[in-house]
Specification:
This protein has 304 residues and is mainly beta. It contains 4 helices and 20 strands. It has 2 domains: 166 residues, Trypsin-like serine proteases (Thrombin, subunit H); 104 residues, Beta Barrel (Thrombin, subunit H).
Length: 304
């Protein structure tokens, strides 16, 4: 029997309580615990019923957490609200991650909103990882926010002479046996809107012990159902595997969730699953060739 669930996108700007100039509200755990209506409804799982997200500080390694950055639109993007009203907003923040010296993976909805057949000349983002740089869309999935999640991806390219991956490294795909996903330990990291502090918006937060429970099928094909903590602003966060040499490698990219809650859930339930884009089909779409081209152009590898 196929199960079809309604999902919601985890963008930051339109949901989070905010201060002036679109800056995120200061995170006050006591305030939020005593006023649950202020908590952005998201799905977070922990057997002890506690918040699983922890601060992640730079570890000085290349190919590690420094490869994950904030995505900020440089122009207003269209967004259709649940009441079918179309608005334009610039107040949206999300997460992206480097997959080569100059290439960034992010969510379609974070860059294009709900626009269809976007013109690349109309969209660009600021990517912040160690420092700021401008990136432009190169290729993206055939995404429809009302229908599916699997195509919620866009590949961005940093402008020339600003390839941040040469400074902080980049993430590679984890060549794991997909049949063993459900028995493998994963982690995730991103910029959680609910926790972002007005004085430190670049603080990275992570869930360092999470699981993938199923590979999506039917309407949710090419997705990964998981319990990796997910908050508004963490759209685009990679689901990561720590390789034996210590490098972080990605298998998925967070996109949305089912039936948000205001409580920390003790046990995973498909009813409240977080849903990530399965990155293997994305790479097979042609992204691998673009990564290889970028590595050659930056003298990382030699052409055949």
């Amino acid at each position: 029997m196929k199960i079809y669930l309604f999902f919601s996108i985890l963008y930051f700007g339109l949901q989070a309580p905010s201060l002036s100039h679109g800056r995120p509200a200061i995170y006050d755990r006591n305030l939020l615990d005593s006023h649950p209506q202020l908590v952005i409804k998201t799905n977070n799982f922990d057997k002890d019923g506690k918040d699983p997200l922890t601060k992640i500080e730079p570890d000085g390694r290349k190919n590690s957490f420094g490869t994950i950055g904030r995505i900020l639109p440089r122009q207003e993007i269209p967004w259709k609200l649940p009441n079918e009203q179309m608005i334009k907003t610039k107040d949206m923040e999300s997460t992206g991650f480097l997959i080569s010296p100059c290439l960034i993976m992010a969510n379609y909805h974070s860059v294009f909103g709900t626009s269809k057949s976007p013109n690349t000349k109309d969209f660009s983002v600021t990517f912040i990882a160690n420092r700021e740089a401008i990136a432009h869309p190169v290729v993206w999935g055939d995404y429809d926010v009302q229908k599916e999640i699997s195509n919620d991806w866009v590949l961005l390219k940093l402008e020339k002479n600003n390839c941040l991956g040469l400074e902080v490294g980049w993430l590679t795909y984890a060549p794991l046996d997909r049949d063993k996903y459900t028995s493998t330990e994963f982690l995730t990291a991103g910029f959680a809107g609910r926790k972002v502090q007005a004085l430190n918006p670049n603080q990275l937060w992570g869930d360092l012990d999470c699981r993938i429970y199923a590979l999506g099928t039917g309407l949710h094909r090419d997705t990964l159902f998981n319990d990796c903590a997910l908050n508004a602003g963490q759209s685009g966060s990679p689901i990561l595997f720590r390789a034996p040499n210590g490098d972080l490698q990605f298998v998925g990219m967070q996109s949305s969730d089912f039936e948000k809650t205001t409580k920390f859930l003790r046990k995973y339930s498909v009813k409240h699953a977080n849903v990530a884009v399965d990155m293997l089909p994305v790479l097979a779409f042609g992204v691998v060739q673009l990564i290889r081209k970028d590595l050659i152009e930056n003298n990382i590898i030699k052409p055949n």
